[in-house]
Write a structure and sequence with these properties.
about 150 residues, mainly alpha, Arc Repressor Mutant, subunit A, about 65% helix, MarR-family transcriptional regulator
Length: about 150
C-alpha cells in the first residue's frame, strides 16, 4: 500500500487530520498518566523517564541527554536526585574508565517496573484489539517513526 505524501502548501485530507488529532490525544493521555504514576512514587516525569531508561541498561550521561532531548547538565541533576534516593548510581564504564555510566539500582529497577505496570490507559484498550490489529498498529507506528 502506498503511503500518501502531503505536498507543502496543500491541506492534508480530513482522515489525516483526524489521525493526527487522535495521535495527539493518545500522547497527551500517556503523558498525563505517566506524570501521575511518577508522582505516586514521588518522582517528576523527567526522573521517571530517566529511571525507565536506566532500568533497561546503564547509559553514559551524554547518551541519556540525547534520549531525553535535554542538556547533559540537566541529566546530571536528575541522576543526582535519583542517586540521593537510592534509585540510581554512577559507575565507571568498563570500556572507557573516563566515562561515567548511570545505572538503576535494584530498588530503581523495582520502581521502574512499578511505573510501567501502573500505566493502564493504553494497555487496557489495546487488550481489546485482536493480535492482528495490535500487530498492524505496531507496524504502522514503526513505519511512521522510520519515515520521520
Amino acid at each position: 500500500m502506498a503511503t500518501p505524501r502531503i505536498s507543502p502548501g496543500r491541506r492534508p485530507d480530513d482522515l489525516t487530520l483526524e489521525v493526527v488529532e487522535l495521535i495527539g490525544s493518545v500522547v497527551a493521555r500517556y503523558h498525563e498518566e505517566y506524570e501521575e504514576a511518577a508522582a505516586g512514587h514521588a518522582l517528576t516525569g523527567a526522573q521517571a523517564r530517566l529511571l525507565s531508561l536506566l532500568s533497561l541498561k546503564p547509559l553514559p550521561m551524554r547518551k541519556l541527554a540525547q534520549r531525553l532531548k535535554c542538556e547533559p547538565s540537566n541529566v546530571t541533576g536528575i541522576v543526582d536526585r535519583l542517586e540521593a534516593r537510592g534509585l540510581a548510581e554512577r559507575r565507571p564504564d568498563p570500556a572507557d574508565r573516563r566515562v561515567k555510566l548511570a545505572a538503576a539500582t535494584e530498588e530503581g529497577r523495582r520502581v521502574a517496573r512499578s511505573l510501567q505496570e501502573s500505566l493502564r490507559f493504553a494497555r487496557e484498550p489495546l487488550a481489546g484489539l485482536s493480535e492482528g490489529e495490535r500487530v498492524a498498529l505496531r507496524d504502522a507506528l514503526r513505519r511512521m517513526l522510520a519515515g520521520g
